[in-house]
Amino acid sequence: MSAPLRWVLAGVGDIATKRVLPAIHSDPRATLEAVVSRSPDKGLAHAPRVFATVEDALAWGGFDALYVATPVALHAPQTIAALRAGKHVLCEKPMAMNHPEALAMAQAADDCGRLLGVAYYRRLYPAVLRARELMRAGAIGTPVLAELHLHTWFDPADGFRSWLVDPALAGGGPLYDVGSHRIDLLNFWFGTPVRATGLASRTIHSRAVGDSATVLIEYESGVRGMVDVRWHSRVDRDECRIVGAGGSIEMKPLNSGRLVSPLGEEALPPHANLHHPALANFTAAVLDGAPVMCSGRQATWTDWVTARVTGVV
Fold first, then answer.
1. Backbone dihedral region of 44: left (phi > 0), alpha (psi from -120 to 50 degrees) or beta?
2. Does residue 310 belong to any structural domain of this protein?
3. What angle do CA 115, 116, 120 make, to 5 degrees?
4. Which CATH number fits the domain that encloses residue 230?
5. Residue 312 domain-assigned?
6. Residue 127 class from Cβ within 10 Å (0-12 exposed, 13-18 middle, 19+ buried)?
7. Rg, C-alpha atoms of the chain
8. Model pLDDT for residues 110-132, shown as the tens digit of each residue
9. What 3-state DSSP class applies to 147?
10. Are 303 and 184 in contact (CB under 8 A)?
11. What 3-state class would DSSP assign to 133?
12. 148 band by pLDDT with thresholds 50, 70 and 90
């Protein structure tokens, strides 16, 4: 058995502590060597070493892969620095603040000969993979339309995850945060988008980022995808429907693993820790040469779509 993959985690916020750290600790082929945190006490609760900056961790150098779980504005500089230092990188979503940044990250990985993955973990949901299998088998005929909706209430009045409503740190509200996951799923199922448009707006909440976005994407095959995400709904909704000429596939809620198709209803729940399969996949990619679940190059297409919605190309 090969030596375990040695990780450093940059950022110990909500998702990192709830999912990323448990995923690393539960993987027998991975070890956590250090974290990057502005709070030494907070960092030492999770790892034997704490560095104030990614640059400090890279100067030390005793690791193989960096997990970037910092605010989006830091993704590109931290990722590129790590790649140039010879480290592999798994980055949280969305990949970057804009499409040029995303392309620069993917190019750095190519130039440095290192792996860059983006944690669009829904690609590894059993129901998502089953939907792709059913479409390829012709279970719904030719796919023509896919709709994904995520409606929830998000108002960080108490300061919890408040950086998500700071455009300088997070970009563009629910379009960047929860919308990016669903745009990536459409790209995973249907390939490279050829056209995209949409609207992002501020309807209920009065803050610097929008609280809703609606995206329309067209693919080379003729499939159209629609993503509608909202942070101003007190009625939660997390739905996916793929319509074909001969039937449809529905996943409601998307995170539940419940899938209904012309073949009947199936229960295909995701892993209890949604990040675990993504971490395990990246570890296997580095140690065994397995395909990366979502490469940096593939992930740039989500940023390409959001750029066409925001107009920031």
1. alpha
2. no
3. 135
4. 3.30.360.10
5. no
6. buried
7. 19
8. 999 999 999 999 999 999 999 99
9. strand
10. no
11. helix
12. very high
